[in-house]
Amino acid sequence: MCAIRTCQRMCETCFGCYTADLYAIADWLTESGVETVAMESTGVYWIPLFQILETRGFEVKLVNAHHVKTLPGRKTDVLDCQWLQQLHSYGLLSGSFRPEDEICILRSYIRQRDSLIRSASVHIQRMQKALTQMNIQLHQAVSDITGTTGMTIIRAIVGGEHDPQVLAAKKHHRLKRSEAEIAAALNGDYRKEHLFVLQQELHLYDVYQSQIVECDRQIQECLSQFNDKIDISQSPLSPPKHTRHKPQGNEPAFDLRTHLYRMSGVDFTRVDGLGVLTVQIILSEVGLDPSRFPTVKNFTSWLGLNTARLRENRWWNKEYFVRV
What we know:
With 324 residues, the chain is mainly alpha-helical. Helices cover 52% and strands 6% of the residues. The chain has a two-stranded antiparallel ribbon with strand order 1-2. Strands 3-4 form a two-stranded parallel sheet. Helix 7 crosses helix 10 and helix 11 packs parallel to helix 12 (276-286). Residues 314-324 have low confidence and may be disordered.
């Protein structure tokens, strides 16, 4: 149940929380002659109403609840809405930053991808635990057990191959470790219960990897719908700092750098320490409208950072970063 108080009629009306009720709120506000709305940001419950009101043409201010509840005793929904209405009528409320709708769509995909990556990392740790319990020191032989050599050996172990020499022969040809060293690390106690855990965790890891690939398809499709800020044929993208034959870490398989350059008009990867995934997260959170953050001070204030300390970093004052 949500309570609403209009500025003009000073009347209070209660509505339900179903979608039909949210549209009824928008209709009632239109009939009441309301043009601007202030609402609290509580969890994710505000999102449906915010989006409906915004599409109806209302100016919606999303208010941080911690910034307005400075007086004791205001605990009911009705009293809360009265307090918000009074502050809003005086012009004392500032809305929280929310990017344009197409950026919000991209942000949802990217946040989901980040959640999938974190979930997959849990199963990597559990695979490592199962290997350690069998005293299989795979992490001593390879730098990353989810790399080409590591996953090939793990899949072979799950498939029933437990001969250290045979497993060591499956290493990638570019791996510097010798087969003898790898075989010594793979000479373990292959207990049935730990192999069962390893098999299940490997399956769950593969499930999350397939979902990440599907999420990347949605992100690529979403990025392709953004308007071009620069003509790549006239201003081609400079070669990357490091030429790689395959994506590194959790980078997607498609050309993310070109998409980010095309939609923003700036190659942010030229900034030291900013990779394509970092730039993607920044743009999906702050959007492409530089007027929302007129100065560096506004941007760092929103981030909650120390501006004086950031000014010590030379890259902060570069023009192509300020243009965010």
